[in-house]
Amino acid sequence: MAQSTLSRVLPLRTAVSTSAGLASAAVNFLAAVEVAEYAGGQSAWLAILVAGILIVFAGANFSELNALFPSAAAIRVWIRRGINDRFSLVSSMVYMLTVVFVIAADAFVLGHTFSRAVPAIPALLWIFVLLALVTWSNSRGIKVAGTVQDSNAFVLLGTLILFSLIALGRTPDLGQFHYFDLGRHWFEAVALGIFIFVGFEWVTPLAEEFQDSRQIPRGMFIALGLIAIAFGLFSLALTVAFPHGHGLVHSFVPQLLVGMRALGPLGFWWMAFITLTTAMTTFNGGLLAASRFVYALARERALPVWFARLNRRLVPQNALMLLAACAFVLAVLVYRTGQYLLLINAGAGVESLMYALSSILVISLRRREPSRPRSFRVFGYPLAPGLVAVLFLGLGVEALLTPTGPSGFPGALVFFLGIVVVMTAYVLAVVPRLKKRRKGEQGVSTPR
Predict the structure, then answer these.
(1) For the segment 60-73, what is each residue's pLDDT rounded down to a tens digit?
(2) Where are the alpha helices (DSSP H) in 369-410?
(3) In 215-302, where does DSSP find H-type helix?
(4) Coil, strand, or helix at residue 10?
(5) How far is the C-alpha of 139 from the C-alpha of 314, rounded, in Å?
(6) How many CB atoms lie within 10 A of CB 429?
(7) 210 forms bridges with which residues in the sheet?
(8) Which residues touch 35 (CB under 8 Å, ≥6 apart)?
(9) C-alpha distances in angstroms, 241 versus 98, 109, 143, 172, 256?
(10) What range defines the domain where residue 322 resides?
C-alpha cells in the first residue's frame, strides 16, 4: 500500500534556506530603493537593521506556535485552537494566497530584468520556463526541492554580501557619507524595511517534513540574521553608488544599475544572475510551502480531496500544479498591467496582519492551554506580544491604505476585501458540502 503521509527528511540548513529564500524576493531590490528614499540616504542600512530586530519578535511568536502544533496546516491549526474554526479557515486561505502574490510580483521584476539583459527573448517566456523548472523540481520529491532551495538561497545571500562589499571597496572617500543621519521620514523607512523580511515564516507548513520540527525556529532566526546582513549591505552599496538616488527611483531594475556602476559589465551580469537566484528561491520555496498547506486543507476536506493526493515521491503534485498555474496567470496579468505595487501592498498588508494575529494567538493559547508543553516560549511575555500586535496591526492597515496609483485610490485595500469576501463565501457555501460528502463516503465505506 502506498504511503499517504509526508516524508521527514529535511535538515536545519533547509529551514534556513527556505525561510531566507521566501523573504529574499527580487522585489526587495525595489523596496531597498524606497527605504533609502525615506531614510534620506546612507542610513537605509540602519532602518533595515532596526526592522530586522522588530521582525525577530514576530519570529518568536511563530516559533512558539510551531512548538505547540507543528503541522502542514500551520496557521490554520493555530487560529482554530486559539480563536475558532470558521475564522481560521477564512484567514488561512487569504494568507495562503499571499504566496501567489509574492511569486507574481517577483515574476514582474524577473521579466523586466531579463528583458533588459536579453531583449531577444520575451519576458513572459523567462517567467514560464522558470516556473516550469521549479514545478518540475518540486514534483521530483522533497529532497530535490530542498537541494534546489539550499543551493540558490545560499548562493544568493553569499554573492549579494560579497558583491556589496566589493562595490563599497571600490567607492572612493567612503568617509564623506552620513551613515547615521536619521531623516525626517526615518520611521517610515523602518516600516518599509520590515517588508524586506516578509515571508520568512512560511517555512512552518513544512513542519511535517523536517527531521525535527524544532529546527524551524532555529532556521528562522538564522535566516533573519542573514537577510539583515545581505540586504543591509546591499542598501548601503546602493546608496553609496547613487548618493542622490538619481536613476533608481523610476527603475524596475535598480540592482542592474548598481551592478553596472560598481563593476561595469561584470557587475551588470552578476546582478542579473543574483536576480535569477532570488526568483528561484521565491518560486521554489513558495510552491514548496504553499503546496503543503493546500495538501493539509484538502486532508481535512476544506478543499477537494483531489489536492490531498501524493505522487509516488510523496509530493502533493495536484496542489503544486494548481498553485503554479495560478501564479503564472497572475504573473502575466501583473506584467501586462504593471500593477505590481497592488500585489506588494496587499501581500505586505496581509502578512503584517498575520504577524499581529500571531501575537494574539500566543496570548490566547497561553490562557486556553497553559499546561501544554512548549519547546519554545516567546521572550518578554505578555508585554512583547502585545506591543508586536499593535505595531503590526498599524503597519498592515497602513500598507493596505497606501495608494497604488497617482489617483490616491487604495487599490490594495479593495483587492484584499474582495478576496476576503470570496473566501468567506467559499467557507460558508462550499466547505460544508465537502465535509458532508466526506461523512457520506465514510458511511458507505463502513465494513459489513
Answers:
(1) 999 999 999 888 78
(2) 383-401
(3) 215-241, 254-263, 265-299
(4) strand
(5) 9
(6) 9
(7) 10
(8) 44, 47, 48, 189, 192, 193, 196, 235
(9) 33, 21, 40, 10, 12
(10) 12-337
Number of domains in the chain: 1
Is 277 inside any structural domain?
yes
Has residue 360 got a pLDDT over 90?
yes
Q: 396-405, pLDDT tens digit by residue?
A: 888 888 876 6
| 208-233 pLDDT, tens digit each | 888 888 899 999 999 999 999 999 88
Residue 307 in any domain: the answer is yes
Cis? peptide before 370, omega within 30° of 0:
no
Identify the burial level of 296 via C-beta atoms within 10 angstroms of its C-beta, where 0-12 means exposed, 13-18 middle and 19 or more buried. Answer: buried
Q: Does residue 42 sit in helix, strand or coil?
A: coil
Cell numbers 527611483: residue = 249
Indicate whether 7 belongs to any domain: no
Q: How far apart are CA 297 and CA 302, in angstroms?
A: 5
* Alpha-carbon separation of residue 316 from 72, 288, 308, 361, 406 (angstroms): 12, 10, 6, 28, 42
User: 67 to each of 6, 13, 54, 167, 388, how far by Cα in Å?
Assistant: 19, 19, 21, 41, 19
Nine-digit cell string for 258: 548598481
167 Cβ contact partners less than 8 Å away, ≥ 6 residues apart: 237, 240, 241, 258, 261, 262, 263, 267
pLDDT at 196: 87
At 27, which CATH number? 1.20.1740.10
Check if the beta carbon of residue 178 is closer than 8 Å to that of residue 42.
yes
The candidate with the shortest Cα–Cα distance to 20, out of 227, 163, 233, is: 227
Would you state the cell numbers that stand for residue 292, as one nine-digit string? 503543503
Tell me whether residue 389 is in a domain: no
Residue 10's DSSP bridge partners are 210
Burial of 291 (0-12, 13-18, 19+ CB in 10 A): buried
- Dihedral through CA 385, CA 374, CA 62, CA 7, nearest 10? -170
- The set of cell numbers assigned to 389 is 500586535
- Give percent of the chain with pLDDT exceeding 90: 22
Cell numbers for 274: 543574483
* Residue that is written with C-alpha cell 533588459 in the block: 116
Rounded Cα–Cα distance for residues 210 and 199 (Å): 19
306 neighbors 318 (Cβ within 8 angstroms): yes
